[in-house]
Amino acid sequence: MKALFAAALLAAGAAQAETPTERLLQAIAEGKEPVAAILVLGGKVDIEARNAARETPLHLAAEKDMRALTRLLLDAGARVRARTATGETALHHAALNEDPALSLLLLDAGADPRALNDHGESALHWAAYGGHEAVARLLLERGADADAVNLDGNLALHGAAAAGHAGTVRLLLARTREPGLKNLAGKTAQDLARERGQAQVLGLF
To answer: How much is the pTM?
Structure first.
């Protein structure tokens, strides 16, 4: 019975990912970087393939902080500025990681630090939301705009302040021309910090 169950699972997996490209996308989604790397090195995959969210293998690898695979994909010609269905680049996804190494890899390959998704958010916005200070610093050094506002009128500073990320707030305060800017709801970054009880952040304004 166990053998039959195992065979059924294997068959189901094969049905879900029949082609090398499908297996590549599935391997990345499951965090299996060595498997994904072997598939890319095999040269029989479409490195610009898209999943339902229009994410490429590069987007998926960046989000999961798969540096070796990201390098392989870039070396194979993956488009570093490709966008998802909602306008994100791989750099947006890399900014979800605390370590800046993968963001640096993408920037060195030509990623645009000022690229905005469909909601008007840059990778800096995403790094600020997560409190990833080292990533935010790198993005700013490479030309990211601390004064960019999303469709809600929020600076990256708004996101960092609301989430209570003191180090990132301190960094952004030094680089934002109008830190008292109000969003479309009439709130400044300081207002959001106050509303959410971020006492450590409030002391920085």
So the answer is: 0.88
Kindly report the CATH number that applies to the domain delimited by 1-112.
1.25.40.20
- Number of helices followed by number of strands (H, E) in the chain: 13, 0
CA distances from 44 to 40, 62, 154 (A): 7, 21, 43
pLDDT digits (tens, 9 = 90+) for 9-30: 334 444 455 899 999 999 999 9
- Topology given in CATH for the domain delimited by 122-205: 1.25.40
DSSP state of 141: H
Closest by alpha carbon to 132, among 76, 171, 79? 171
Q: How many C-beta atoms surround the C-beta of residue 53 within 10 A?
A: 11
88, 32, 30, 33: which is closest to 56 by C-alpha? Answer: 88
169 closest CA partner among 177, 179, 178? 179
Structure tokens at 78: 């993956």
Question: CA–CA separation, 87 vs 191, rounded Å?
Answer: 29
